[in-house]
Amino acid sequence: MVLGWLVAYWWLMLIESVVIAGVIGVLVLSAPKIVGKEPTSLGALRSGMLVTALATVLAYFALMIGIANYLGAGGEGLVIMAAVFSAGLIIVQWMISPWIIGLVYRTRDPVSSREKMIANIVQRIADRSGISNVKVKIADISMPNAFAYSSPLAGKHIAITKGLMNLLDDDELEAVAAHEVGHLKHRDVSWILALSIIPLMVYFLGRLLIYAGLLGGGGRRREESSPLLLAAIGAALLAMSIIFRFLIAHFNRLREYYADAHSALTTGKPRALQRALAKIYVAVKKGKFEAEKHSLAAPLFIIAPLIDVNGGLLVSIDDIVETLKREEESPIIELFSTHPPISKRLRFLDRIAESLWGEV
Questions:
Q1: How far apart are CA 150 and CA 109, in angstroms?
Q2: Which of 67, 238, 297, 317 has its CA 20 to 30 A from that of 207?
Q3: pLDDT in tens, 152-203
């Protein structure tokens, strides 16, 4: 009995590894076709977010209804169990994440006059955006960045790192603050966490079906289908869970554009955000900061942390902005990233400025 379970588990791990490697391999080979250009307008961005979210949710429900119908008696219970387990993990993570982030990044209340001035900037932007009760925190780390996070228990937070305070001027800090306030206004943490239940649930259900198939099948229609078919369905679910993960990463990249747009519209200074993004990018790209030690909140950062050592001396940030606009990121790197490439974000801000004010 125990040996049978161990053998089944070994096969489960083998099947899972092969499926995940296969799906990721196909996605990598298809990356140039999957990854498109930056949004051409705010309207196109909103349409892209809507289509991505709807496609993800509708595909998920169609998949779950089909699986429950195929499994018959007991199938609905299996689907519900997977949903409850996955939602429970995500909700617990959501509830306690602000305290974990506070411990890892050593966040605290503003103390110095400059820190309080920055907190006032954030509060002013939040008031302008119709967001109340935003708690501003200072993160005692040297990496220049900012991130927004929230939960029903801990409330809404925006953290500014010491490194960012030392790197940016007041206009640039205001632009970054407006970006982070945009995340809170758009409820991005809630959106991403809610959608994250889908791949986790599909993955968990796929593993259960593979395991059940390897151990002899299950459900009302056990006699009608072979254990091999049940395991094959489970493997297909594992593949779908990976695809869902990449869809959600794409949705997250679109939300980053949306927060950039909020900054530009709220402050009226898209150039200030461009300069801030370029300064952060160059500072981190040059390897001055140990980004690899601060990966926990990477999906929340205004710039995805980089650890490459590259680039020369910072001479003119405006020249660097124009240079970065012309760069093209590898589609494979973008496919695996939670943030759009810097070049696309800078060009998108140009489009926002041109559409609103007729200038770049």
A1: 16
A2: 297
A3: 888 899 999 999 999 999 999 999 999 999 999 999 988 998 999 999 999 9
Burial code (b: 16+ CB inside 10 Å, e: under 16) for 46-72 equals: eebbeebbeebeebbeebbeebbebbe
Active site residue: 115, 174, 180, 334, which one?
Answer: 180
With beta carbons less than 8 A apart as the criterion, state whether 277 and 339 touch: no
Please give the backbone phi and psi of residue 40, each rounded to the nearest 5 degrees, phi first: -85, -20
**Residue 143, domain member (yes or no):** no
Residue 31 domain flag: yes
**Neighbour-count burial of 168, counting CB atoms closer than 10 A to its CB (0-12 exposed, 13-18 middle, 19+ buried):** buried
Give residues with Cβ within 8 angstroms of 232, minimum separation 6: 213
Domain count, the chain: 1
Q: How many CB atoms lie within 10 A of CB 12?
A: 22
Strand order from edge to edge, sheet including 134-139: 107-108, 134-139, 155-161, 146-151
Write out the two tokens for 261: 């747009």
DSSP character at residue 135: E
In a domain, 127, yes or no: no
Condensed to tens digits (0 to 9), the pLDDT of residues 30-66 reads 998 888 889 999 999 999 999 999 999 999 999 988 8
E strand intervals along the chain: 107-108, 134-139, 146-151, 155-161
Are 231 and 137 within 8 A, CB to CB? no
Question: What separation in angstroms does the CA of 36 have from each of 74, 120, 280?
Answer: 42, 38, 24
d(CA 219, CA 5): 19
Confidence (pLDDT) at 298: 59
130 Cβ partners below 8 Å, 6+ apart?
185
Whether the predicted pLDDT of 310 surpasses 90: no
Token pair 């991403």 in the structure block, residue: 192
Task: Please indicate, yes or no, if residue 154 is contained in any of the structural domains.
Answer: no
Q: In which domain, by residue range, is 270 found?
A: 7-104+186-357
